[in-house]
Amino acid sequence: MSSISSKKKKYLFEIHFLRAFACLAVLGVHVSATYYSMNDNTFNWFSYFLNQVGRFGTPIFVVIAGFLLFYQVKRNTYSFGKFVTSRFSKIVLPLILWSFVYRFLLYYFDNHQIGDMKTELVKIFTGDHFYHLYFIAIIVQFYFIFPILQKFFRSKLGLIILTALSLFISYNMVGFNPGMDGFIGDFIASKSFMPLWIFYFSFGGLLAFFWDDIRDFTAKFPWIMLILSLVITAGAIIEYTFNGDLTNRRVSNLLNIPLLSIATIGMYPILSQWNVMKKPLTLLGKYSMGIYLVHPLVLHLMKIYLPSSIWNMIYLPITFTFVLFICIAIIRLIQYFPLSGYFIPVPKIKKNFENVTSKKVIA
Known about the structure:
Blueprint: H1 13-38, H2 45-53, H3 57-74, H4 80-110, H5 117-126, H6 134-152, H7 156-173, H8 182-189, H9 198-209, H10 211-218, H11 222-243, H12 253-266, H13 268-271, H14 275-305, H15 316-334, H16 354-357
């Protein structure tokens, strides 16, 4: 049995694949939810499946955020100054700019009145200006604690300890009621409160420090990883069938998300063999942040301008694909403008490593 040397794999294509699947999952939730609202708050079996299984997406994005930051620590490329400037330009600034975009959208099309400056600023940094921005606000909260975390937990043992502590915190935060009134109490009890998600972020760090071992091991069993991902999906179907609507903050995800993340990484040797899948998924991984930011705008405008016949459930797969292509087109258009990276950050793919990463493990 021979495998690709971890030293040769200088670009993390597996993470782009994981991003792509998380992106498709989140898009599935929001497209199906739009159909739900346009059909008198009803699902059919497919839209319900898309909506419920798609709730794996956001926690996986948190895993990826933790992975990318701790991977810098592992490689000794982390510096506080670079971290601050990079994260401000790639995450904080897009959060601010897109908050203004969605605030204008609601004001112009839905007649939502603009509040005082304090209220609007609070909404920006809690992600309250539109339903998807809370995730960006969560990531910003992690940026405040990451410089401290990386200082004390910068080894394999340290990440194991951090992940164990985080599991305890996240488990106890599910359904937590702070018993406080007002903004602080509401924020602590909301889905935007960072400790609720800290396990996924810490697990991303653990994944980064054990990256070579996990990637090389799972690459030997890609079909088993595919089966594992299908079993987790089947488990989610059983869970929502018997327990009703799921959220991305349910306790079962504390097990589902680590397993699904590892399984998706392990499926890379299979999927990378087929260009019909590899190239689109790599592109989706590259544009995932932009798609995440743009797609609610596209869906909102479609609700306003498209005829009601479009919202027949039979057209959901077509609409899903249509929204995806429109988002990619918008991102490509924005890239032609100066300073577009501050509006939609798009990572560069080092194509000279692509052929190396596409090789399958040879038995």
